[in-house]
Structures are given as structure tokens and as C-alpha cells.
Amino acid sequence: MGIDIRLPLGSLFSLLGIILFAYGALGDSSRYQQSLGVNVNLYWGIVLLAFGLLMLFLGRRGARSAAKEENVSPSARAGH
Amino acid sequence: MTGIDWLILILYFAFVLGIGVALKSSMKTSTDFFLAGRAIPAWVCGLAFMSANLGAQEVIGMGASGAKYGIATSHFYWIGAIPAMVFVGIFMMPFYYGSRARSVPEYLRLRFDEKTRGLNAISFAIMTIFSSGISMYAIAKLIQTLHVFDGVFQRLGLNSSWIFDVAILISAVVVLVYTFLGGLSSAIYNEVLQFFLIVAGFLPLSYLGLKNVGGWSGLKATLGASYTHSWSGMGHANTNRLGVEWFGLVMGLGFVLSFGYWCTDFLVVQRAMAAKSMSAARRTPLIGAFPKMLFPFLVILPGLIAIALPAQPAVPPNASAVASVQPLGQGIIPLKVDATSGKPMLDNNGKTQLDYDLAVPSMLLHYFPPGMLGLGLTALLASFMSGMAGNVTAFNTVWTYDIYQSYIRPGATDQHYLWMGRASTVFGIAFSIAAAYMANRFNNIMDMLQLVFAFVNAPLFATFLLGMFWKRTTGHGAFTGLLAGTAAAAIHHGLTLPAGAVTGIKGGWLAITHTYPSEMAQNFWTAIYAWSTCFVVTIVVSLMTRAPEESKLVGLVYSLTPRPEEEPLAWYAKPASLAVMVIAGTVLLNIIFW
To answer: What is the CA radius of gyration of chain A?
Structure first.
């Protein structure tokens, strides 16, 4: 229907991941006292980026195979 | 909120609105708008099926219950949702999807008659408006309490008493734009975004919290057995924190209320009706059941951790010294404070109360640095808005198909109904705004309305069960059964009272014949009485009235419908295999947390 949700989902999470990762890598680490000394922005940013890229990959692959099916099916039907 | 938190929030809003705009061009017929063209893949519908229910009440309420009742709150998931989700997928979806009904009330029209549909459609439409209003009210209240907008308001020189109004306006406009443009597809896609945002925002919270309190064993040591076991005290109402015995819990919550919601509420069923095939529709609730099974760890656990931490004054980010003179709450949960006087509120016995609804927000503020805090708050707001959008899309469909097309203007063109769908989105949201202000001004009216909705909903599942599985059930039987069930719920509520409560909205307004150990026990038993009355009355009246013609019931009743043909799917993706897996997982979780 219209768009494959994995593409916007993947883009949003990739962007969120990059923002958090950059903020975690560049900012000063004293602010992580409240998160028990864990730089959550940095680590969770990496996880979100990985998830976002995976969704983009799956979405692109899905779009390609859907396009292939559309190209194949009319001729397949004509053969019957 | 700092700059980075705003950046995350605004990025999310941009995507939400962008999805609406991108979908606008594919909204050509009313089916595109109201049923997403019946073209959505099963996994997307499944996540939306689960997330549509993941609104304000769920995320804030389950954390609050976790702090109040402990891990026993997971009963609302493990017996209060999973069995019903499996049942609707395996047994009921063939009739909902197979009958080509466009809504749940329309199924009632096909199976029974016009009056049964009318009763269901009108009560459902009113209910969705109020639920969406309550969601909006909850967003605005939370934004006010957490001082999210205070900094911006100060900088712009605006009066901070407008924060509530601005918050209502923003949430209403955002939801309006994306449901107006993209209809149900837009709502479903945003529910999927929201699902992943909640996981992204809450998983680190549970992790950090658990790490801080020394893991599950540390939590057990701090809180004791009553907080950390879900079944072991359920033998008697006085030996568990819920104040309910196992029979009331299993029958009231696990059977009547849960099946009544997950199997008959159009808000969730609509997500499955949008699926692209029968097998996708059947798998929708089953796929949703997998994350549902694990969500207690994301939404209930933070509540438990909040109550287990050492007490400390919760200081809102922009608050001044006022907070430090307030008496301590428990854990990081603050006391309930009267908004006008600023003093702690007292209950009937003169004791201070904890503001459990702040359990989850306090956890976010406690553990998350700037950056993650933005993500956590965005997840919270996203869940509120999706809860609202779910109600709005269910409302515009029931209004347009079941009320407008049936009673006001039948036989118009499809384009006209598409237009009406958009128009009803606008006035549905306008009414929700009115409901949100009503919730703010007159709390008692809202409580009373929710009580009436509970009475109307309680008997519903008996009607559907008989309608789908007993071909002799008649329209007159169903209609009288529903009315009798609702009346039974009201009478039972009027005759009983939870211990320690005052006669009135809590019950006992006819006479007090029985006192329940807790309000939850009273609710569960009200549901049991309503369901049983509806079940018996429907059967008796059906037998007294003329049987429906069997030829008209094909595709609507179990015994007269051919089994759905299975699509060629891998063994693990078949509905039955998914059902077995999710039930096995749920049983295992119940044993682990016994």
C-alpha cells in the first residue's frame, strides 16, 4: 500500500542512531553519572543505527523483488 | 529538555507527518481510507494490532500498576490478552475477514439485524471519542507535570498556564493531519513506528534500572515475595496485592474482559481487517501476541524498579527549591500533590497517597541523560498519539459506514463516503478536544462515563461467541441479551462496594449486599455477571424466536462455513504453529514468575 514502512522506519532509526552516537561520542562524559556511568547515548546510538540500516536493507530488497515480480507476472500470465 | 531532546522530538514529528503526506496520493477509494486498501502485510498489521492498544493508559498505567501491585500486573498481559489474541486469530478472524464486513458493527448487521448493529455502532462511536479525548488529556497533563514546554514558554515570554492548551492543540493537529491525509494506512504505519520507538526508549530504561537494583534477585530481596510473584498468593484475595482470588481473575479478566476487548473491539480488529489476505488477517493477532508477551519487561518492570529505589525527592528538571521541602514519596515515586494548593493530597483515612502515574516518567528523568531522555519522552508522546489515532480511525469508519451510510445517507457515491471519512476525522477530533477539556474540568463525569462504557462492553463477547458458534442465535436474542447484560452489570455495581470505598461512583448506589476486597475484584465480578446474563438471555430469547435462515449465515457462522484454505506457508508461519509457540512461551513465563 503506497510505501514500504521499512523505508521510513529505517531512515528514522538510522538518523536517531547517528544523532545519539555523535552526541555520546562528542559530549563530556560527566553527564552519564545518572545513567550509572554508562554512555547510553553512544552504545544505544550504535544499536539504533544498526537496526535502521537493517530495515533500509530489507526495505530496498523488498522493493527490488516486488519490481521484479511486476515485470515477470504479465508475461507469465500471457503464457497460460 | 535540551536542544538534542528537541531535535529528536521534532525529527519524529517530521516523519509522522511525512508518512501522512506520502500516503495521500494512494487514498483513492473509501476502502483505501478506511481499510488501508486491504493490502497491508501480516507483520505490519500484527505490530499495529498490538500498538493500537499501547496508548497512554497502557504505558503509564501498567508502570503505575507495576509499582502498586508488582509483577502480578503481568496478568493483564499473560492471561488478560494472549489467550484472547490467539482465539481471535484462530477462530474468529475467518468470519470477520471472510464475511467481507467492513467493521465489527457491520458483521453484527450481517449476522443478526439492524438494531444490534445500531446499538453497537452508536455506543462504540461515542466511546472512541471519549477515549481519544482522555488520551489527549493525558498527554497534556504529562507535558504540564514534567515541565517539558516550560523552558520554551519562558524564552518566548508566554504565560505558562497555556501549556495545557498548547499541548492539546499540538497533539490534536498532528493526529488530525496524518489521519486526514493517509487514513487507516497512516495510523497503522505510525503505530509501527511507535512500537519500535517504545522498545528503543524503554529497553535501556529496564536495563539500567535492573543493573542499579542488582538484577531480578536484587529486586526480589528489596521488595519481597508479594511484589515478585504473579500466582503464588492468588488462592485468596487477602494474600495478594491485587485483592482478587484466582477464579475472579481468570474468569473476569482472563475470559470476559480480555476476550470482550481483543475479540470484539473494532479498534484492534480493524487492524486485522486491513490485512492483505485471509491468512495475513489470521496471523495479525498472533504476530502481535509475541511482543505482547514480552512487554511486561518494558512497561511493568520500570514501575517495580521505581518503587524499589531508595526514596528521594523527585526534582522536575526546571523546578526550584519547592520540591525539596515536600515530604518524600516511596522509591522515586512522588506523593500525589493537589495542583492548586501544592500540598500532598490525603485519602479517606487521612493518609498521603503516592502518585503512581508518575512512576514511569520519574524513571525516565532519573536514568536518562540528555539525548536518551529525548528518545524516551518521544516514545511516550508517540504512544499517546497512536492511542488517539487508533480511536479516531475506528471512529471515522464506524461513523461513515455504520451510521452515516446506514441511517443518514445510503446509496451515495464512494467518493462521497471518502469525503465523509475525512470530514468525520475533523469533527471526531474536535469532539475529542471537547472531551479532553471535560476530563480536565469534571473528573467525576469522566469516571461515570467510563463506568457506563464498562457496563456496555462487558456482555459483548457472549453475543459474538453465540453468534459465531451457534447458528440458532437470533437477532432478537442478541439484542435483548446485550441490553440484559448491560443492565446486569449496572445492577451488580449498584449492589456491591469495594472495601473502604464510599457509596456512589464506586458502587453500592442501590443497596450494599456484598463488599469486595478490592475495586479490581468488583470490576471482574461485574463483568462475570454481565457476561453470564447476556449468555443465558440470548439463548432463551433465541429459542423463543424464529430461527434465522441457514443460507444467509454462510461465512458468518462456524458450522456453516467451509474451513479457510491454507496458503502455502512455512510450517512455523502457519497460524496454528504461531498459536502453539505463543501459548508455550506464555506458560513458561507464568511458571518462571509463579
So the answer is: 20
Q: Which residue is closest to B211 within chain A, CA to CA?
A: A36
Query: Scanning every residue of chain A, which has its alpha carbon at the shortest distance from the alpha carbon of B18?
Result: A8
Cα gap B385→B489, rounded to integer Å: 31
The whole-angstrom separation of Cα B586 and Cα B589 is 5
Domain ranges of chain A: 6-69
Q: Which sequence spans correspond to the domains of chain B?
A: 3-441+573-592, 454-562
Task: Give the C-alpha separation, B374 to B155, whole Å.
Answer: 19
Cell numbers representing residue B262 in the block: 481483543
Cα–Cα distance for residue pair B221/B206, rounded to 1 Å: 18
**In a 3-state reduction of DSSP, which class is residue B497?**
strand
C-alpha cell at B41: 502485510
Contact present, B170 and B435 (Cβ < 8 Å): no
- At residue B328, the pLDDT reads 62
Is residue B339 exposed (0-12), middle (13-18) or buried (19+ Cβ within 10 Å)?
A: exposed
Of B7, B18, B208, the CB nearest to A36: B208
Q: Residues of B with CB below 8 A from A12's CB?
A: 11-12, 15, 193
Question: What grid cell was written down for B69?
Answer: 501491585
According to the CATH classification, is domain B3-441+573-592 in 1.10.940.10?
Answer: no
**Is A2 in Cβ contact with B22 (below 8 Å)?**
yes
* B479-538 per-position pLDDT tens digit: 999 999 999 999 998 888 888 778 878 887 888 888 888 888 888 888 999 999 999 999
Closest CA to A29 of A48, A47, A46, A43: A43
The number of residues making up chain A comes to 80
**Is 0.90 exceeded by the ipTM?**
no
Query: Which residues is B150 bridged to in the sheet?
Result: none
CB contact under 8 A, B196 and A20: no
- State if pTM tops 0.80: yes
Cβ–Cβ < 8 Å for B26, B32: yes
Task: List Cβ neighbours of B41 (8 Å cut-off, separation of 6 or more).
Answer: B275, B276, B280
Q: What SS3 class is residue B514?
A: strand
Beta-carbon separation of A13 and B196 below 8 A: yes
| Overall average pLDDT of the B97-124 stretch | 89
Query: How does strand B496-498 pair with strand B514-516?
Result: parallel
Quote the DSSP letter at residue B128.
H
Pairwise CA distance, residues B81 & B262, whole Å? 7
| Amino acid occupying residue B539 | I
